[in-house]
Design brief:
heterodimer; A: mainly alpha; two-stranded antiparallel sheet; B: alpha+beta; Beta Polymerase, domain 2; Cytochrome-c3 Hydrogenase, chain B; 5-stranded mixed sheet; 3-stranded antiparallel sheet
């Protein structure tokens, strides 16, 4: 697939011994720990998205410290509000319309959730390699992220509701645009990493460990591209066209209720965690790679990761509050143009890096 | 304020305009009541609307028991003679309730005629759109009308085609309407109130559209008739929660036109102050709703945050936030003290500053603008033909403002208070945004001038109550935030319907109740225009086009609806609903 020839001016990080990090037992333990940690971080990011949006809009939002007089009744904090909302849905009736294809309609929320959930294991956290060193883990992650949206569309299409049908159609139109961006962004980064290390690097852990320079500096356009993709994938305004509530009720989710809707929301929580962490892992890689014996760095990296993740959520919020929703035709043309231009620039950047002798890429 | 009619205008009407008139009765404020023969109404409508360019206001009917049914048509002659409003009335015999349709002459009369048909069973000959207006499409015709019982729904009537007379019908046949792909409503997050807009789509483009109302019924006209004038004001204010001040103002304007009222100047200023504060909060609210419909929650929250401040000012003045309860016949119930008025002025100035900081950037937001420019087109000719009112008409560059031509009993004279009509030639939703934002700042100017007057002068706020002559009639007009409001009242007494006369008496003089109160809200007109704007739009634009006329459906609907499932065709009655709810609660 890729033959990387020639010398690079950026020397790859030599991973000699990662010690405990690559120990299978340690990885197995971290995978189990990841389930609550992923949920925790996903909920926190969702909470932040809601809270920041509310503050931008002169609203209070879910409160961090509950008012004293209400605390005995409602608990001390509402940071877990997104989780409470989902748990509430799990306690409700799960209905399916008589016109729907029941099996697909009821199975797709589980599958959409599962894809977004499993992806957390393939994306590293600072100090935690997880399954990101599995061969082709980048490809697996991209597939999982794509499939999660695919099952949402499948569920909507099987529901038999005209609103869902229109929502699914819109989602497909957007999906075709942003998934191209996702693939171009991640694989151009993989291309750069491959050329630096001199071997084919298709694992996220490989990208993380390929260089001491953040990819954000090497190919900033790829980062912008991934950010644009996040807007579409997370249905951030102005690209929440598929779920436009004033136009098509709830789009793909119109007929869903109870547990099924809760699973979709949970899938969104994990998708937010996946994308934010993937962005940081790929573009601010040195934060995630841990040179052996540098325990201090490990202690600094986790808070730094949290701070950067909050910055990411903040940026998403800013875009969310500043924009009304696009019309689908305008959204497709504008979003398509944006993605296309940035994707071309991303690839051009790889070519430029190649020309400047920073890396050498030979495809053949 | 109160004038009889100019004799020269009466002569002009008698000789040139309506020579076939049977009786002429001058009403107060340059308004004329003309009785005509039923067979003349369509000819007169043709003459008025097509030749003279007179605006059609409303049509309705009054059931007079043994005397028959009065069907009246109201026309606005303000373009030709100052403040002239003509009420044409034809009396129908109970045995022969037929009258030629005015709807075939001008489209805008079709809605009221459909309503009168449902209300009183009057058969309008040649009405282009005979479907039910407020009743469900499935509702069978009553045997008295002579129409086949199943005609209204079950048989498919072909889509109406444009006629040579220039009337362009809108509407899908009932069967098509029921079979359309996308019913927007009765419950839809884009429009909070209940209505159904049927749109047929090809891809995302709307190829056919129609509106079906009738999901609210409160019987408020009847309620006002039974409650009388003084208590009717409260009911009138509750027609609408947003333009409540304007309903109160129009009600008192109409009721004061039943007798020779002399409202003190200070009361007039207080009325103007409240009406304009109400307009500010209504328009700010609308900008927020429009932002919400295009998916911009931030714009919604920020504008509604400012709206709270307007509501606070209103609360400081009247003690209430929604229904102010200060409207009285002959004045207002509460004074605005001089200190309060002078204290309110800087607050209003600060509000204006904040609105200036918020609204122009909102209107200039590129994505917001891209959703609105060129969407929901309505040119001036269509606006006139279909009877658009208010900001919708003004955004089509049609200078129509009742405050200018037929002011209510408040201060709107441009010699006393400076304001102007805001126009825009955009003919689209963006034009409607600009008109509303412009009007809002005009209103702030009026409010400031009113507060200036109130803080400097003192005076009475209410005149002594007077007696209303039996049998008198009046028309009240006012420019509500959404457009022209129309009230028609006929006082009790005089020629009373038989069922109202106690045994052994022939008449009740000076009865304190009304024989008829008819309300026509601006949304009633603008909703009818809606299908014109929808055809050709994209589905994504449908909610914002619906929002652009600032719909108020509770104002529009009047007739009870019964749930009816078309396939199994059973009717859920009130008792059934009670039983169902009891069953659900027990299990």
């Amino acid at each position: 697939m890729l033959n990387i020839v020639g010398q690079t001016s950026i020397s790859p990080v030599v991973v000699t011994n990662q010690g405990i990090l690559s120990n299978p037992i340690f990885i197995a333990v971290t995978l189990i720990i990841m389930i609550p940690v992923g949920l925790f971080l996903g909920i926190i990011y969702t909470f932040l998205l809601r809270k920041l949006t509310a503050r931008f809009q002169w609203r209070v939002g879910p409160v961090v410290t509950m008012y004293k007089d209400l605390a005995p009744l409602l608990g001390r904090s509402r940071i877990w509000q997104p989780l409470y909302d989902i748990l509430k849905l799990f306690g409700k009736d799960n209905m399916s319309p008589s016109t729907s294809r029941k099996a697909i309609f009821l199975a797709s929320p589980y599958l959409a959730f599962l894809c977004a959930f499993v992806a957390i294991f393939f994306i590293p956290l600072p100090g935690l390699q997880l399954l990101s060193n599995v061969s082709e883990s980048l490809v697996i992650t991209v597939y999982l992220l794509i499939l999660s949206v695919m099952f949402t569309i499948l569920g909507a299409a099987s529901s038999g509701s005209p609103w869902s049908a229109i929502g699914a159609r819109r989602e497909v139109e957007l999906f075709l645009i942003y998934e191209i961006g996702l693939v171009v962004s991640l694989f151009s980064v993989a291309l750069i990493a491959s050329s630096i290390t001199g071997t084919e690097t298709l694992t996220i852990w490989g990208i993380v460990n390929s260089t001491n320079l953040p990819m954000l500096i090497l190919d900033p356009f790829a980062a912008i591209l991934l950010f644009l993709v996040m807007l579409g994938k997370l249905a951030i305004k102005p690209f929440d066209i598929a779920e436009a509530e004033a136009e098509i009720v709830a789009g793909p989710y119109t007929e869903y209720s109870g547990r099924s809707l809760g699973l979709f929301q949970l899938a969104k929580v994990f998708l937010l965690y996946d994308l934010v962490t993937l962005f940081l892992a790929v573009f601010i890689a040195p934060l995630f790679s841990l040179p052996t014996g540098n325990a201090l760095w490990f202690i600094a990296a986790i808070p730094l990761y949290v701070v950067l993740a909050v910055v990411m959520v903040f940026l998403l919020t800013v875009v969310q509050v500043l924009h009304p929703r696009y019309k689908i035709s305008k959204g497709i043309s504008d979003y398509g143009a944006m993605i296309a231009v940035v994707a071309i620039l991303t690839i051009a950047m790889v070519v430029v890096l190649n020309y400047m002798g920073v890396i050498t890429v030979v495809i053949g | 304020m109160v004038t009889g009619i100019d004799p020269s205008i009466l002569d002009w009407l008698k000789k040139e305009v309506v020579p076939e008139g049977l009786a002429f009765k001058p009403l107060r404020e340059n308004r004329v009541y003309i009785r005509v023969k039923p067979e003349d109404v369509d000819k007169l409508a043709e003459r008025f609307v097509k030749k003279m360019g007179v605006r059609f206001i409303h049509s309705s009917g009054v059931d007079l028991g043994q005397y028959g049914v009065d069907v009246f048509y109201v026309y606005d002659f303000a373009e030709l003679k100052p403040k002239l409003v003509v009420v044409l009335e034809a009396r129908l015999d109970k045995d022969n309730l037929t009258i030629p349709s005015v709807g075939k002459v001008t489209w805008q009369a079709a809605w009221p005629e459909r309503e009168v048909h449902e209300f009183l069973g009057v058969d309008f000959k040649g009405i282009p759109d005979a479907r039910h207006q407020f009743l469900p499409f499935e509702w069978p015709n009553t045997p008295e009308t002579g129409a086949p019982a199943d005609q209204s729904v079950v048989t498919e009537t072909p889509n109406p085609t444009p006629t040579a007379a220039g009337w362009h019908p809108v509407g899908i046949s009932p069967k098509n309407a029921l079979a359309s792909l996308i019913p927007i409503g009765p419950y839809h997050p884009g429009v909070i109130e209940g209505q159904t807009v049927y749109v047929r789509l090809e891809g995302e483009q709307v190829v056919d559209a129609d509106i079906k109302t009738g999901y609210h019924h409160r019987g408020i006209q009847r309620l006002i008739e039974k409650r009388g004038y003084n208590r009717g004001v409260y009911a009138a204010e509750r027609v609408c929660g947003i333009c409540s001040a304007h309903h109160g103002l129009t009600f008192v304007t109409c009721a004061e036109n039943l007798y020779d009222a002399e409202v003190p100047e200070r009361a007039l200023y207080i009325r103007t102050l409240l009406a304009e504060l109400n307009r500010i909060h209504s328009h700010v609210l609308w900008v927020g709703v429009a932002a919400d419909i295009v998916g911009w929650k931030t714009g919604f929250m920020l504008t509604w945050g400012l709206r709270e401040r307007v509501m606070d000012i209103i609360e400081a003045i009247t003690g209430n936030r929604v229904n102010y309860g200060i409207w009285r016949l002959g004045g207002v119930s509460r004074d605005v003290p001089q200190e309060l008025a002078s204290k309110a002025r800087p607050i209003v100035a600060k509000l204006k500053e904040d609105l200036l900081r918020l609204l122009p950037p909102v209107a200039a937001n590129p994505v917001f603008k891209s959703r609105l420019v060129g969407v929901g087109p309505l040119d001036k000719a269509t606006a006139f033909e279909t009877g658009a009112v208010g900001p919708v008409a003004r955004a089509s560059n049609w200078k129509i403002d009742t405050r200018l031509t037929n002011p209510p009993h408040a201060i709107y004279d441009q010699k006393q208070i400076s304001w102007e009509v805001v126009l825009n030639d955009g003919c689209d939703i963006y034009g409607r945004v600009l008109v509303r934002v412009g009007e809002l700042f005009q209103s702030i100017g009026i409010v400031d001038q009113c507060l200036d007057y109130l803080s400097k002068k003192t005076g009475d706020i209410r005149e002594v109550p007077r007696t209303i002559e039996p049998g008198s009639e009046a028309v009240g007009l006012n420019e509500a935030p959404r457009g022209e409001q129309f009230y028609y009242m006929r006082a009790g007494g005089g020629e009373l319907p038989a069922y109202m006369v106690p045994e052994g008496k022939t008449n009740v003089q000076g009865s304190n109740t009304l024989v008829a109160c008819r309300i026509r809200t601006p949304s009633y007109r603008n909703n009818a225009v809606l299908p014109y704007m929808l055809i050709g739009a994209a589905l994504a634009d449908v909610p914002i086009i619906m929002g652009s006329i600032d719909q108020c459906l509770a104002c529009t609907d009047r007739v009870e609806v019964v749930n009816d499932k078309d396939e199994s065709s059973y009717t859920i009655t009130w008792d059934d609903l009670v039983k169902m709810s009891q069953k659900k609660c027990r299990s």
